[in-house]
Write a structure and sequence with these properties.
mainly beta; 7-stranded antiparallel β-sheet; two-stranded antiparallel ribbon; globular
């Protein structure tokens, strides 16, 4: 994995490579991170590549409906959802994903999750079930 950062210190992209015993490598996928003006993650576009280097599919995660409360998970890098939450200044309350097959320009997978967060007396969200 290679991580790339913008001039603002935000994660810009990360690329996963497969390395063969011969020392050769092939790009497997690249994730491009897009942030809004408030510093919140708005989209992650993942491009999956074939062995010939051509794009096979594009998987997009869309984040939105941010609150204005401080994000208690910021700067924590653990599991996917926690990782995505840790990249933003505030807390997303919606997350949508879709998969685009480049060959036939068809979206095969799309779903959306929304959360109604509860907040403590300081305005910090409570991430409980």
């Amino acid at each position: 994995m290679r991580y790339f950062y913008s001039g603002k210190g935000q994660l810009d992209s990360l690329t996963q490579y497969v390395v063969f015993s011969s020392g050769n490598y092939r790009k497997e996928n690249t994730k491009k991170f897009t942030f809004d003006a408030q510093g919140n993650l708005s989209e992650i576009e993942t491009r999956n590549y074939r062995s010939n280097g051509k794009i096979a599919s594009i998987y997009t995660n869309i984040f939105g409906d941010y609150d204005t409360a401080p994000n208690p998970l910021r700067q924590l890098y653990m599991f996917d959802d926690t990782f995505y939450r840790s990249l933003s200044k505030n807390n997303f309350r919606s997350h949508q994903t879709k998969l685009l097959d480049v060959d036939d320009n068809t979206t095969y997978l799309s779903h959306k999750n929304t959360w109604h967060l509860k907040y403590d007396e300081r305005g910090i969200p409570l991430f409980k079930r």
